[in-house]
Design goal:
Blueprint: E1 17-21, E2 28-29, E3 32-33, H1 37-51, E4 55-59, H2 79-86, E5 91-93, H3 99-106, E6 113-116, H4 123-126, H5 130-137, E7 142-145, E8 167-169, H6 171-185, E9 191-195, H7 204-210, E10 216-219, H8 221-230, H9 245-257, E11 261-263, E12 267-271, E13 281-284, E14 293-297, H10 299-310, E15 314-318, H11 331-345, E16 350-354, H12 356-364, E17 373-375, H13 379-385, H14 391-398
Parallel strand pairs: 1-4, 1-7, 4-6, 5-6, 7-8, 9-10, 9-15, 10-11, 15-16, 16-17
Antiparallel strand pairs: 2-3, 12-13, 12-14
Helix pairs in contact: 1-2, 8-9, 10-11
Length: 399
């Protein structure tokens, strides 16, 4: 990864107008923010800049208004919750480009924080339109990208502005990039990756990339069934993409050629119906009956995987090992996550996890705070695991 500039490189910003791209795309219930995780991630950057006397303007999108003004997707409704997590007043301007917004911006007090209206109310945002970029750039003296979760999009506010204003990484972006560099950029080997989830098809590029980068690839969730079936195991009624047999075998061949050990479960937890707490059996993978579904990895496999993690120095985790939302099929995910957390706390492992389901699973196991780094980014984290260049990050490193 090339070097990128951070808030430490900005010098005196008192009285300067700073455009900060954040992720304020938070879930709402009855007009109130129902989960403020993303808002809390903005505090380090916004508070620091305001305390240093900058006029801070927050750029963000909300929902998918498709270039049209939609009051239901106005960022005005997020301001009270952002103000609460920051513990200070937050202003709002009903636009993010244009002369009137520029004039109003100049009048803001030093040390103030103001949210600008949804960037996606402009057609030019998702098109990364030069005219919109030019208009937005007139609102600021500096640009900061603090939204890793939107860094896989080449939009005006996530990528375009970094080419026309002096550009820096915010504190959340900086933490994310440092953690990701430790996890896959230049990690300490041996490296293990846990990849779970329902479908191989959604993570094909991830698997193909990882076998060339890691020493141990642990496959769980419905994806494991596809690999087991490809190896001739009868997986009964389990979720399985039988049409991907050749692809699965190809990935296993690539892994072998790259000296990457692929770990598939050899004991599994099965049931004849998918619901909470049905009658279950723990069996060898070769003993799954035609009317049964594999819904979690078995305890013997979890123990073996824990032993693998004990030999590793770095762990990247994306996706649960079983149908973790439905008890008792969260057992394997919780057990392995707790092992990883304990190894991290003992200083033996650098552990980086990301993706919505993964964060939920680690929270369920009570260990999200014990991992080295947990990314709340979904698509951007996956694209990074695929080895793709993220436009928002690339623009920062080149600016």
């Amino acid at each position: 990864m090339s070097a990128f500039r951070t808030l430490d490189d900005m010098g005196d910003v008192r009285g300067q107008r700073v455009l900060v791209r954040e992720d304020l795309n938070v879930p709402m219930v009855d007009g109130k923010v129902s989960d403020d995780t993303r808002l809390r991630a903005t505090v380090a950057t916004l508070a620091e800049l305001a305390d240093r006397g900058a006029k801070v303007f927050v750029l963000a999108h909300f929902g998918r208004p498709k270039g049209k003004i939609d009051p239901a997707m106005s960022l005005r409704q997020v301001v009270p919750a952002l103000s609460a997590v920051l513990g200070r007043e937050v202003g709002f301007l009903d636009g993010c480009a244009g002369q009137s917004i520029a004039v109003a911006g100049h009048k803001m007090a030093d040390g103030s924080i103001t949210v600008l209206e949804n960037t996606r109310f402009h057609e030019g945002e998702e098109a990364n339109d030069e005219a919109l970029i030019e208009q937005m750039a007139k609102l600021g003296d500096f640009y900061i990208n603090d939204a890793f979760s939107a860094a896989h999009r080449a939009h005006a506010s996530t990528e375009g502005l970094a080419h026309v204003l002096p550009a820096f990484a915010g504190r959340a972006m900086e933490a994310e990039l440092v953690a990701l560099e430790k996890a896959l950029g230049s990690p300490e080997h041996p490296v293990a990756a846990v990849v779970g989830g329902a479908k191989v098809s959604s993570k094909l590029d991830v698997l193909k990339h990882l076998v060339t980068r890691v020493d141990h690839l642990i496959i769980g969730g419905g994806m494991a069934n596809t690999f087991l079936a490809a190896r001739g195991v009868n997986v009964g009624k389990s979720l399985c993409e039988h049409d991907l047999r050749d692809t699965a075998l190809e990935i296993l061949d690539h892994a072998q050629a790259a000296n990457c050990t692929v770990h598939l479960p050899y004991d599994v937890v099965v049931a004849t119906e998918f619901r909470a707490n049905p009658p279950v059996r723990t069996v060898n993978v070769h003993e799954v009956q035609p009317n049964e579904m594999i819904l979690d990895i078995g305890p013997a496999a979890v123990e073996a995987l824990a032993d693998v993690l004990k030999t590793c120095r770095t762990l990247v985790w994306n996706g649960p090992l079983g149908a973790f939302e439905t008890p008792p099929f969260d057992a394997a995910t919780v057990a392995l996550a707790r092992t990883a957390a304990a190894l991290t706390e003992a200083g033996q492992l650098v552990s980086v996890a990301g993706g919505g389901d993964t964060v939920a699973a680690l929270n369920q196991a009570g260990v999200a705070d014990d991992f080295t780094f947990v990314s709340t980014a979904g698509g951007a984290f996956l694209e990074w695991m695929e080895g793709k260049e993220l436009p928002g990050v690339a623009a920062l490193t080149r600016s």
